[in-house]
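Allow me, if you will, to draw on your knowledge of protein folds for a short while. The matter concerns a single protein, recorded as an amino acid sequence and a row of backbone structure tokens. Kindly check, if you would, that the fold set down in the tokens agrees with what the sequence suggests. You will find the record immediately after this paragraph.
***
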Amino acid sequence: MSAAGGLPRALERGARLGCGAVQLFLKSQLQWRGRPLGAEEVDAFGHAWATTRIGAVFAHGSYLLNLAAPDETEWRRSVAALHEELERAERLGLPWVIVHPGSHKGQGRRFGLRRVAQAVDELAARTPGYRVRIALENSSGAGRLVGATAADLGAVLARSRRPERLAVCLDTCHLFASGHDIRTAAGLEATLAGFIRSVGLERIVAFHLNDARTELGSGLDRHEHIGRGKIGLTAFRALLRHPLLGGRPMVLETPKAEDGDRKNLATLRRLRRDASLRR
């Protein structure tokens, strides 16, 4: 949900759509620094959360962040920017900030994953006692991006000295783009089982539900309306009825045009209702 006009507005917009979960940016996703977050806005956000009764609210970090960056200046700038976002999220009582792990820029996947773990440890040292966690989002696998596989995310956890500060968010479009064939219930189950083994069930805290415009394994991060892309409805029906994961908060990052949020929510709710009837 857009936070234009102030962070509480994101919750109000979500409530008007009947959302049970809302993801928002805590500042412009294309700027390194945000305006100061005042006590009045923090209080207003808490009031909006209480009055809208939205169950799960969490943040997405800036698209500029690259926790895998080999360049020291870029890496430190990314760590500092994410530190600011964690500070904001902690003040607002949010449980996690979702971030893309980033690109190793030619230094190799192992280097990039080690760099991400180093960033997480640095941020944990800067925020002792904080409840907010970093939720790493699986990448689409394009080019030099890290984090596309269960093994990648598991490697970050294994390298980190503070894995308790880490969680994972799975994006369905990114799964498909990175070569995970989730078009059937069996394929989705096999993919989820791999992530559960590598990162742990308890660390998979949220989902981005997006269909994909491009073919399996394309590496391209191109989101589409639910059921109108290359993934199809079967995967979403299976995920919504999954006995271990179906209760996790799930949010849309699908196109906004043509009342997209309302239509995609209606599609997902129909799939969820149909799955319930089948049980």
